[in-house]
Every structure is written in structure tokens, then in C-alpha cells.
């Protein structure tokens, strides 16, 4: 039989959640990743980690298939590698299951829209890039995007531009002296 807790012991235990102790706080590595990629919530990083873990597990299972399933293994591996390359998670030179086994959450974070804006030199830093996206200054193809968590595939990377009515676009055109007379009416 366990004794009844005293008042101060109950008060201390209110702050401690023994069921979900893992969610107590992010580790130092997670904090670095959150800052480096400008993630607003830790749950996004946890989701990217789970996706990377699933892909690594799939690559490991494909690698460990028996010798009688060479054709199936080759077909599935090529489809997996093709999709990962199309998403931009693998670098162009990497084309093996070993590259899939090294996949991390950082690869997903690098494909987020603010990171792509930074790589395209459309923003000075990640914080400004995320602000531009939230304010509606950026479009991907014909659609205006306001969610910085959008993962941009490699095929759509060339179609990331400013919105036509964006003041930032007008400032860039004025600076480069490329603004058209037709745009002045808009």
C-alpha cells in the first residue's frame, strides 16, 4: 500500500506528466534544427523525422530481400529512388539504397518553401523568407502560397516567383530597371 502524498508532493507532481515524459522538451540537436530551418513548431520536425525513418526502413527492407527477388528489388528500388529524386530529397549524383539509408529530417527541411526562396536568392535570410510566404508575396506556379511548410518538389522549383501584385516584385523590378510601362498602370 502506498501512503497518501503530502500537499507539497502533490503540487510537484502536477507539473510532471509521467505518461508523456518524452514531450518534456526538445533536445539540443532539435533546437538547432528548429533554428537553422526556421521551423515554427517542433511537431513539424517530429513529422519529418518520422517520414525519414519510414523511408530508411523501407530501403533497409528492400536491401534485405532474399536472392530470389532480384527483379522485384530492382523495380521497387528504382521507383523509390525516382520519387525521392523528384521530390529533391536525394542529390542528383546519389542513386542507391545506401543514399536512402542516410536520409534525414534535414532533407525535408531543405525542401521547404522558405529554404528554396533563400537558395533562389529571393530573400536575405530564412526569417524574412518565411515572412514573405506568410504575407502572400510568393506563388508556386499559378497558386499563391501562404504556408511556409510547403515542400517544393524539384519540378516546381523553377516556378517559384513573386505574386504579380506584390510590392516586393515591384521593388525588385524598379531596382533592376526592368519595370514595364504596362506594370505602372497596375
Automatic annotation (TrEMBL):
- What GO cellular component term, any one, is given? Mpp10 complex
Q: Name one GO molecular function term.
A: snoRNA binding
Q: Where is the Small ribosomal subunit protein uS4 N-terminal domain?
A: 4-110
Q: Which UniProt keywords apply?
A: Nucleus, Ribonucleoprotein, Ribosome biogenesis, RNA-binding
For the RNA-binding S4 domain, which residue ranges apply? 111-178
UniProt-annotated location(s): Nucleus, Nucleolus
Kindly list the biological process annotations in GO that this record carries.
Answer: ribosomal small subunit biogenesis; rRNA processing
UniProt keyword Signal, yes or no: no
Classification via Pfam families: Ribosomal_S4 (PF00163), S4 (PF01479)
Q: Which family does it belong to?
A: Belongs to the universal ribosomal protein uS4 family.
The protein's job, in short, is: Component of the 60-80S U3 small nucleolar ribonucleoprotein (U3 snoRNP). Required for the early cleavages during pre-18S ribosomal RNA processing. Part of the small subunit (SSU) processome, first precursor of the small eukaryotic ribosomal subunit. During the assembly of the SSU processome in the nucleolus, many ribosome biogenesis factors, an RNA chaperone and ribosomal proteins associate with the nascent pre-rRNA and work in concert to generate RNA folding, modifications, rearrangements and cleavage as well as targeted degradation of pre-ribosomal RNA by the RNA exosome.
Q: How does it assemble?
A: Part of the small subunit (SSU) processome, composed of more than 70 proteins and the RNA chaperone small nucleolar RNA (snoRNA) U3. Component of a heterotrimeric complex containing IMP3, IMP4 and MPHOSPH10. Interacts with MPHOSPH10.
Name of the protein in question:
U3 small nucleolar ribonucleoprotein protein IMP3
**Which organism is the protein's source?**
Piaya cayana (Common squirrel cuckoo)
Amino acid at each position: 500500500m502506498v501512503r497518501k502524498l503530502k500537499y507539497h508532493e502533490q503540487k510537484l507532481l502536477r507539473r510532471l506528466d509521467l505518461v508523456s515524459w518524452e514531450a518534456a522538451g526538445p533536445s539540443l540537436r532539435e533546437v538547432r534544427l528548429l533554428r537553422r530551418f526556421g521551423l515554427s513548431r517542433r511537431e513539424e520536425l517530429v513529422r519529418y523525422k518520422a517520414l525519414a525513418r519510414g523511408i530508411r526502413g523501407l530501403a533497409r527492407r528492400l536491401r534485405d530481400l532474399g536472392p530470389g527477388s532480384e527483379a522485384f528489388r530492382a523495380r521497387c528500388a528504382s521507383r523509390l529512388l525516382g520519387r525521392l529524386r523528384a521530390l529533391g530529397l536525394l542529390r542528383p549524383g546519389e542513386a542507391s539504397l545506401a543514399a536512402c539509408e542516410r536520409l534525414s529530417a534535414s532533407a525535408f527541411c531543405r525542401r521547404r518553401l522558405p529554404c528554396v526562396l533563400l537558395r533562389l536568392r529571393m530573400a536575405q535570410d530564412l526569417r524574412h523568407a518565411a515572412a514573405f510566404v506568410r504575407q502572400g508575396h510568393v506563388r508556386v506556379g499559378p497558386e499563391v502560397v501562404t504556408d511556409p511548410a510547403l515542400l517544393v518538389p524539384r519540378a516546381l522549383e523553377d516556378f517559384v516567383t513573386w505574386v504579380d501584385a506584390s510590392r516586393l516584385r515591384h521593388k525588385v523590378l524598379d531596382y533592376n530597371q526592368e519595370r514595364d510601362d504596362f506594370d505602372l498602370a497596375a
